[in-house]
Amino acid sequence: MKHFRKELWINVQKRREFINITPLVSECLRESGIKEGLLLCNAMHITASVFINDDEPGLHHDFEVWLDGLVPEKPHSQYRHNTFENNADAHLKRTVMGREVVVAVTDGMLDLGPWEQIFYGEFEGSRNKRVLVKIIGK
After folding, report:
1. C-alpha pair distances (Å), 125 with each of 40, 46, 128
2. Contact by Cβ (8 Å): 50, 43
3. For residue 108, what are the domain limits?
4. SS3 track for the chain
5. With a threshold of 0.90, does the pTM exceed it?
6. Distance of CA 101 to the CA centre of its chain
7. What confidence tens digit (pLDDT) does each residue in 62-86 have?
8. Are 101 and 41 in contact (CB under 8 A)?
């Protein structure tokens, strides 16, 4: 059994953004040399997410509208957490969108469905953040 670990650094200038990281994750898989196994990809920050969905701008807009309706950023005073930082909404949005994905590796490729892509979701922005890629297999 082989294993591979790499951290990807992502710098998002906006408070919220969805970034397709499938090419970066695929490159990690190529670097690993693993042909069969499992790949874990997770956000290493409590206000960010990794999830799988379609790379379609209208859907990303819908996510943004839905998340803001569910957990609006303002007024900041509505959240007890916001006594030191104004990021309670980012914590809650991350909980809804999820922390990580696990993808099967088959014949050296990500075993994704036809429209599936891996995304990094940022809910607080404006600094460097890490995504962990861990691959186990043979």
Report:
1. 23, 12, 8
2. yes
3. 2-137
4. CEEEEEEEEEEECCCCEEEECHHHHHHHHHHHCCCCEEEEEEECCCCEEEEEECCCHHHHHHHHHHHHHHCCCCCHHHCCCCCCCCCHHHHHHHHHHCCEEEEEEECCEECCCCCCEEEEEECCCCEEEEEEEEEEEC
5. yes
6. 8
7. 999 999 999 999 999 999 999 888 9
8. yes
Q: For the chain, what is the domain count?
A: 1
Q: What are the structure tokens assigned to 121, written together?
A: 């979701």
**Residue 42 belongs to domain with CATH number:** 2.60.120.460
In the sheet that 2-12 helps form, which strands lie side by side, from edge to edge?
Answer: 2-12, 127-137, 37-43, 100-106, 109-110
- Residue 37's identity, in one-letter code, is G
Give every CB contact of residue 89 below 8 A, 6+ residues apart in sequence.
71, 72, 73, 79, 123
Ordered mean pLDDT values, 10 residues apiece, the chain (138 residues)? 97 92 98 98 96 97 97 93 91 97 98 98 91 98
